[in-house]
Amino acid sequence: MSWTTVCKFTDLVADTGVCALHEGQQVAIFLEKSEQKVYAISNHDPIGKANVLSRGLIADVKGVFTVASPLYKQHFVLATGECLEEPEHSVKAFEVRVQDGEVQLANS
User: Fold this and answer.
1) pTM to 2 decimal places
2) Are 104 and 6 in contact, with CB atoms under 8 Å apart?
3) What's the mean pLDDT in 27-41?
C-alpha cells in the first residue's frame, strides 16, 4: 500500500478540522482530542452539496465520534463516513496514519 502526505501533524488542532487535497478531492482531517486519533473523511457534504465538513463540529454521539455538518447539522461518523440521520448520504472515509510527524492517507 502506498501513502501520500497531506499535512503535518502539528498543522492539526484538537477537535477541529482542516481541509487537504488528496487524489484530486478535498478531504476533511480531524484530530480527536480525547483519543489523540486522526480521522479523514470526504470534505463534501452530500446533503448541503458543498465542501464544508472540515468546518463542522466534532461531537460524541452515543460513544461514537462524529462531525456535525455546519449546513444542516447531520452527523457523519469520523471512522466510517456514515451519516447517522440519513445513511444513504454517507461519505468516504480514508485510511489515515501519522508517520514521522506527517499525516498520510492511503492511496486508492
Assistant:
1) 0.95
2) yes
3) 95
